[in-house]
Each structure stands twice: as C-alpha cells, then as structure tokens.
Amino acid sequence: MTTHYIDLTLLPDPEFSHAHLWRALYAKLHRALVQLETSVIGVSFPEYRLRPQTLGQVLRLHGEPTPLEQLMGTDWLKGMRDHVQIAALSPVPAGTQHRVVQRRQFKTSAERLRRRRMQRKDETAEQAAAAIPLSVEQKPNLPYVQLRSSSSAQSFYLWIELGDLQASPSPGGFTAYGLGQAGRGSIPWF
After folding, report:
1. Could you provide one GO biological process annotation from this protein's UniProt record (predicted)?
2. Which of 52, 60, 50 is nearest to 96 (CA)?
3. Rounded to an integer, what distance in angstroms lies between the CA atom of residue 29 and that of residue 178?
4. Of 16, 118, 127, 168, most Cβ neighbours within 10 A?
5. Is residue 105 within 8 Å of 159, Cβ to Cβ?
6. Domains delineated in the chain
7. Which pTM does this prediction carry?
C-alpha cells in the first residue's frame, strides 16, 4: 500500500539536456533501490504524455513513510541535488484512483534478434534471417528513459506504459526500477 509520496522535479539546465538529466536521475534511483533491496517503493510520472511522448519533469516516489524516508536518507541523489527540486513527504490525497505503471519491452531490432538467435542456436546468418524477418520489428510510441545496464554495459530503452485507472489498488511489489509488473503493484494516480 502506498500512502505517501515525494515529488522530484527536474530543473532546466543549460549544460545538460532533459533526456540526460532523466537518465542520470533514474539510473541513480535504480541503483539505490537495488542497494536497499526494497520492492515497496513505486514510481509514477504525473506529467506523462503520449503526444508528444514525454515523462514530463516530475518523478513521483510512492510508498509508506518509513521506506521513503530511508531512501531519502541515503546519498542516492549525490551529484543531482542541483538539478532536482525535492518536495516534502506528503500523504496521498483521499479518494484517488490507482493504476499500474509498468515497463514494456519491444522487439525493435531484427538484426539484434538474429545475432542472439545465431549465438543460441548455432545458426548461420542466413538461417537466422530466414527465421526472423524484418517485419518483427516494432515501433514503440511510449515515453522512455534511455539507460545503461550495469551488468552488460549495453544501452537500452526503458519504455513506460500506464495501465488503466482503477478505483482500488492492486496489490504487489515493485521492480528495482520502481515499476509494477503484470498488472500488479499499482500506485495512486493524481
């Protein structure tokens, strides 16, 4: 249950792009959630829009007061404090609806899928191309944060999708990115 929230608002910066600031903030949050080994802090993006695709400027952290205070008591925002305005811990407004904010993954590169298939099935490039046509590529139209995997150093897109509004919360924990999964782990939406 998420009864409280903290808003983090990205401030404009002439030296860094909005995308660069999002990438830095979200990567730091992910590392902090992993380090704390918590699945009780969720995120939302109150300014989320599909047209134009944007997460906006606000990252909202959701949870109970103790885990949120524990997170904010760490030094996870080191290097970002000049770029973020931090609001006070506040209770969620009464009567709010809920929704799951989750990651969506897409097959965006037939070439990458072919290379992976060649490795896993010991196939030639021709066999993999026959098995995976270009038509499998999907063109996502969701807002995203571009991140870098700490384990593989590969860059990837973390596409964010909003579930339907619901009158009551759906139970479940959150991933190390603060996202719900498989329709579970909703946050208050306001």
Report:
1. maintenance of CRISPR repeat elements
2. 60
3. 8
4. 118
5. yes
6. 4-96+168-189 (3.30.70.2540)
7. 0.84
